[in-house]
Design a protein that fits this description.
Strand 2, helix 2 and strand 3 form a beta-alpha-beta unit. The chain has two domains: about 230 residues, 3-Layer(aba) Sandwich (Rossmann fold), CATH 3.40.50; about 60 residues, Histone, subunit A, CATH 1.10.20. With about 300 residues, the chain is an alpha/beta fold. Strands 3-2-4-1-5-6 form a six-stranded parallel beta sheet, with helices on both faces. The two termini are about 20 Å apart. Helices cover about 50% and strands about 10% of the residues.
Amino acid sequence: MSFKNKYLIAIVGPTAIGKTSLSIKLAQHFKTEILSADSRQFYKEMQIGTAAPTLDELSQAKHHFVHHKSIKDNYNVGAFEKEAIATLNTLFKNHEVVIMVGGSGLYVDAVTKGLDYFPEVDKSIRQRLNKELVDNGLEALQLQLKTLDITSYNTIAIDNPQRVIRALEICIGSNKPYSSFLNKNKNKRNFKTVTIGLTADRDIIYNRINKRVDIMMAKGQLEEVKTLIEQQHLNALNTVGYKELFNYLNKQWTLDFAIEEIKKNSRRFAKRQLTWFKRNKDTLWFDYNTNIETIKKTIALELKKHETN
């Protein structure tokens, strides 16, 4: 099925920059629906710490892929790609434009560009890397990746053990950098994509992140994490805002130190997000304070340009 005159507007940018608010305004403008490409917001048990849309925000536009999975589910980017494309195929029957929003670069790219294909590697490599993780910690694996593939080290979610191990097993098993397999032989999409990026000066981004963490704590982030303590071993919970508070609850850190670590790790995450998203030279970047009418006009011009191509 071809949707060559249908458009996906993808909204990207660092955490806490205002993507959710913009996505809702654009969804209302185009009378359409929103796909979330934020891998942390998929899980219904993780609401406060992932800055998921509030009930009020969810009521302002129909959302897909928000709190549709449990942390106990085995869900990955491959499954998301299939479900997101199927959802788009349905939505494009009734909408000229669909909005997608998220800060997970790999998940955004899976929808807009298709997934990369990697060679099969010996399963024993992953087993050995998992043992190294237990024996020597994540930092040792990060240093290995830095040596074998500095590009991946600088762009993947380096604090996520599964992402680090995945990149390393490809490097080791193929004798080629993980990054060398990216952006090759991908599936062609049957719709057109316009990507909107939100950004700001680094100090502004960092201040917004720090304030958001304080707001999350005031909203009950610690209480949310307490309810998940028995599941802290699950991969979905090995993420910023949760792992730090688990360390506090396990009496390894003070609460003040854990909160500062959340802020620091969130700032690092934002830096990696921008590195990832800046690779797309077609992204239309706006300051986070840009008037919505200006963004709408730019999108209208972009859609018109695509129609003539």
